[in-house]
Amino acid sequence: ILPIISQGFPCESKFAGKQFTLQQFMDIWDKNLEIDGYELEMVVAGLPSTQLEDLILVDEQQIILNYIKQ
Question: Which of 42, 39, 62 is nearest to 51 (CA)?
Fold first, then answer.
C-alpha cells in the first residue's frame, strides 16, 4: 500500500472557513479509510488518535495513516 502524500497549496474557495472531516475528504476522492484485512492506526501531529473519520482537518496538519496487516 502506497502512502498518500499531499502538499498544501494556496487557493481561494467558496468553502473558506468551513470545517471538513477526514471522512468528507476521503468521500470526495471516493476512498475508504478501512481496508479489509488491515488494522488502521492514525497519528495526528505526532500523537496517536482514535478520531479517524471524525477528525476535523486543519491547515498544515500532519496525518499519518498506518495500515497493519492482520
Answer: 42
